[in-house]
Amino acid sequence: MNPIERADRIIYLDVLRGFALCGILFVNMPSFLGERFTREMGSTDQLLRLLFDLFIQTKFYTLFSVLFGAGFILFIHRLRMKRKSLWIFVRRLLALFLFGLIHLLFWRGDILQTYALCGLMLLAFVQTRPSTKLWAALALQLYVFFRYLSIYQYAESVGDRSIPDPDTTLQSIVAAHDVAAFVIYHATVQLPHGLTNSLAIWPEILSLFLIGAYLMERFTVRPPATRTIRLVFGASLLLSLPLLYPIVQIHQGRFPDGLANYFFVWLSGRTLAVAYAAGIALLVRFGRPLSGFQVLGRMALTNYLMQTVIFTLVLFMTGRYGTIPLWQGTLLVIAVLVVQVIFSSWYLKRYRQGPVETFWRTVTYGRKKSRNT
Question: Quick one: signal sequence residues (predicted)?
Answer without folding.
Answer: none
